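Lab notes, practical 5.
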Amino acid sequence: MNVAVRFGTRNDIDALVEVERSDVETWYHFSSQGRSDQASYDELSSWERVMHGGPWMDSEALTKYWVSIERLGIIPLVAEIEGKVIGHLDIIFSEELPFGQFLYLDVLEVHKDYRRRGVATTLIREAERLARDRRVRFILVQPQQYEGPSGLTYRSCGFKKAFDAYSLETSIDNLEIPSKVQIVSIPQTKEAPLKTHVMICGWYNISAKTWDYGVNPDLEFSREEKTRRLALAALTSKATYFFHLGQNLFDHSTGTLCLWAPIPLRRNGLQHVIQPAKTAASWLGVKSLVTKSIEGYTDMLEKEGFVLKSRTEPYLIKEL
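Output from the prediction step:
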């Protein structure tokens, strides 16, 4: 079987949706309260389809998301056999703290009818070739399941565990903003502070993509979900911190926090931003904040009142 890999274009949108749809056996209606009745794909709205796995589940949503793909410089690699698209891998070249230059492997999917034929491995090998051409030091990825098919595939390609990731939570208590801290909005035009600030928490993706989602949310989907989001900066006399807040999809009393701190990291620096972030979260009606971080930063968050809830899938690395 000859698998060809090329760069994807907007002309591939319908074919990419077909690949992603193949992994869903049963479709459901959704509302702001959660999943409801079973339905056919054609009966669902664009937003309901996205709830089954992201914008790749619907051509209209993926067309809108393609703007983010182009803005972030994401490279969609498309695998095909005899002209039929049967898989894809989105990759992102980035340069950000604390890693420097690297390649991140984002979304990987193979049509269910073409799995276990080396398609995913072929896509990963092409990503490695591109990484070597650009002379980056390593490739980073967080598989859906370390012990599942995705983790096993990456490990068979030479990837090893880089660091663990964790879910954390804190309650909203004191609602006062410290007198020496000023809170301002972050404009959409603000570039990600990748070379001056470290993403302490918000490790749902790499810093570049997490930042972009926070300052460029899909407002149409937010209205559908009835959720609210904030992108703010905490200004002190010595430093500027950035944080993004959002209500959880089906439980608006819980919110998510993504936080960037300037380097060098100050021992007690987070106290200047955690309390303002909690206060701003209360404006959204949030009672508790959840986030995701990696080893090295969890101790700092625990000192500010966060509690470790669980270990999530680790990040994997392949040095080149």
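Observations recorded by the TA: The chain has a mean pLDDT of 93. Residues 174 and 311 are 28 Å apart (CA to CA).
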